[in-house]
Amino acid sequence: MEDVDKNIELKINEISKKLKAIRLSKGYTSYETFAFENELNRVQYWRIESGKNITLKTLIKVLDIHKISLKDFFEDL
Fold first, then answer.
1. How far apart are CA 17 and CA 9, in angstroms?
2. Cβ neighbours around 59 below 10 Å, total
3. What span, in angstroms and rounded, lies between the C-alpha atoms of 38 and 32?
4. Which of 3, 15, 35, 58 could disulfide-link to 40, CB 3.0 to 4.6 Å?
């Protein structure tokens, strides 16, 4: 089970890093500014980019903000 958990954590970190890269590519150098301008809780968004708390609901909301489909997001992960 430990290997499974470790693999899950690695995948969550990949998702977090990709979300941060997308934010930066859109010109948002601050996660706080991105969260504020898109009506997201800034602490919750920080947790997402830190790989600490990602719910599907929030992931879909963030991808909708960026106009990215789930398919496109996960295509290269």
1. 12
2. 15
3. 10
4. 35
